[in-house]
Amino acid sequence: KGTAEMDIQPNEKLFLARRRAGETLPAAAERIGVPLKEYVAMEKGTNPTPRKHLPALGKVSVEERCLLARRRQGRTQANVAAELGLCVFTVRRMEQGRINSERLATHLGV
């Protein structure tokens, strides 16, 4: 799917909301009132996420879609960096939206 049509799964919504807030896993679990082990399973997608815990994300940036695409493909930042002839730091900054991510988006099919 193209960037505008990417379906964000419930576990990915939890992950992106936590990432946007700069929270650790324990802090996110505490915020929504569930044990850490349960939160981790929800974020991994191995346990369903109750609707009451699903955040409203609003617009998902191209950089966030790159991050999700890479994770869905089971690739690390190091894998992608090697494929693009870049350092991991550069891929990380692209995923954070700190530098232009067009090359990364094209590479990941976003």
List the helices and strands and how they pair.
Elements: H1 10-21, H2 25-32, H3 36-44, H4 62-72, H5 77-84, H6 88-95, H7 102-108
Explain what the structure shows:
With 110 residues, the protein is mostly helical. The protein is built from seven helices and no strands. The chain has helices at 10-21, 25-32, 36-44, 62-72, 77-84, 88-95, 102-108. It is elongated and about 40 Å long. It starts with 9 loop residues before the first helix and ends with a helix. The model has no long low-confidence stretch (mean pLDDT 91).
Using brief descriptors, characterize the structure shown.
elongated, mainly alpha, 110 residues
Percent helix range: 55-70%
Beta-strand percent range: under 5%
Outline, from the CA principal axes?
elongated
**Low-confidence runs (pLDDT<50, min 5 residues)?**
none
Structural class: mainly alpha
Mean pLDDT: 91
Q: How many helix segments?
A: 7
What is the element string, with H for helices and E for strands? HHHHHHH
Number of strands: 0
Taking the sheet with the most strands, its summary is: none
What does the oligomeric state look like here? single chain
- Rg, nearest Å: 15 Å
- State the end-to-end CA separation: 8 Å
In short:
This protein has 110 residues and is mostly helical.
